[in-house]
Design a protein that fits this description.
Low-confidence stretches: none
Number of helices: 6
CATH class: Mainly Alpha
Number of domains: 1
CATH superfamily: Winged helix-like DNA-binding domain superfamily/Winged helix DNA-binding domain
Strand order of the largest sheet: 1-3-2
CATH architecture: Orthogonal Bundle
Structural class: mainly alpha
Shape: globular
Length: about 150
C-alpha cells in the first residue's frame, strides 16, 4: 500500500479552513462595528487609517499601509478621500521627497473622540458575550500565530 497520491490531494474540510474561520470571525466582529462607522461617515478602511494615525502619527504612508493591512494603491485612494474631508493631512518628507508623511487633523481626532464611546460599547458587548479571559486568550493566540508565520516567511 502506498501513501497519498500527490495528483489527488485531499483538502481539509471547508469548515476546518483557517482562512475561512478567520474571515467568519472577522465578519461576526465587524457586524458589530459597521453600523457605527456608517453613521460616522467612514469606511472600515478609512477608520483603520485614522486609528493608526491617532495612535502613532505622523507616519510614513508605507508604514500606515503595513499597519492597516492595505495595499499602497488602496491607501492612496483612502488618503485622498480623508484629506478631502479634512480628516488627514499629507505632506512630502523634506528629507526624501519620494516619501509621503500622513497625520491626523484636529477634525480627524474629533471624529475619533465622537465614535470612541460607541466603539468601546461594542467592545464591552463582545467581552460580555465571549468573556474577558477568552478575548485575552484569543488576542494572545492570534499574535502568536502572526509571529510564527512571520518568522518563517520568505
Amino acid at each position: 500500500m502506498s501513501g497519498p497520491d500527490p495528483a489527488d490531494p485531499v483538502l481539509r474540510g471547508f469548515s476546518r479552513s483557517l482562512p475561512m474561520a478567520l474571515l467568519q470571525a472577522r465578519e461576526a466582529v465587524m457586524n458589530r462595528f459597521r453600523p457605527l462607522l456608517r453613521e460616522a461617515g467612514v469606511t472600515e478602511q478609512q477608520w483603520r487609517v485614522l486609528r493608526a494615525l491617532d495612535g502613532g502619527g505622523p507616519l510614513d504612508a508605507g508604514e500606515v499601509a503595513r499597519r492597516c493591512c492595505l495595499l499602497t494603491p488602496s491607501l492612496t485612494r483612502i488618503v485622498k478621500t480623508l484629506a478631502a474631508g479634512g480628516l488627514v493631512a499629507r505632506r512630502q518628507d523634506p528629507g526624501d521627497l519620494r516619501r509621503l508623511v500622513l497625520d491626523i487633523t484636529p477634525a480627524g481626532r474629533a471624529l475619533i473622540a465622537r465614535v470612541a464611546p460607541l466603539s468601546e460599547a461594542r467592545y464591552a458587548e463582545i467581552t460580555a458575550l465571549f468573556g474577558a479571559a477568552n478575548l485575552d486568550d484569543l488576542h494572545a493566540k492570534l499574535a502568536a500565530l502572526v509571529a510564527a508565520l512571520d518568522e518563517t516567511a520568505d
